[in-house]
Amino acid sequence: MFGDLSSKFGSLSTHVQKLEVQIAQTAEAAKKQNEVNTQKFCSVVSSIDGTIVPTLSQGEEEENEPKERHKPERYSWESRRAYKRRLEGKPLQKQEDPGKFVITSSINGIQLHDCLCDTGANVNLMSLALAKDLGFKEFKSPKIRVEFADLSCMEPMECLKMS
Length: 163
Known about the structure:
By secondary structure, the protein is an alpha+beta fold. The chain contains 4 helices and 8 strands, in the order H-E-E-H-H-E-E-H-E-E-E-E.
C-alpha cells in the first residue's frame, strides 16, 4: 500500500513540475508578444485606392512640419495661479438625494401650494379637480391599474386624453 501511494505521489509531482515549466514558457511568450519596436512601427501607409504612400523620415518631418502659431493667452498666468490656489484642497461635497420634497408652483396663473416633487418618479399624477381647474376638458376612462415601487396600487378615475 505504501509503495502504491509513493508511486502516485511521484507521478503527481512530475505533473506539477511539467505544469510549472509550461507556465514559465507561456509567460516568456507573452512578454515577447508585447515588445513592439515603436520606431519601425509603420514605414508605409496604404491609401484608399490601393497606392502606397511612404511616410516621412525623421529628417523630413522636422523640415516639412507646419509651424505652430503663437496664440495669445486668454488669462494671465497670475490669475490662473490664484484661481488654482483657491480651488486647492476644497473638494465639492456630495449632496444627499433630496428624495421627495414640497414646492410652491404656478401653472397658467393658478397657484399650487405644497406640490410634491419626486426626482425618481416615472409616472405623473395629478388630482382630477386640479386638471379641471387647469382647463383640461377631454378625459377618457382608464383601463389600467398603477402599481408603484412600494407595491401600493391605484386605479385612476380618469386619464387625460393626449391629442
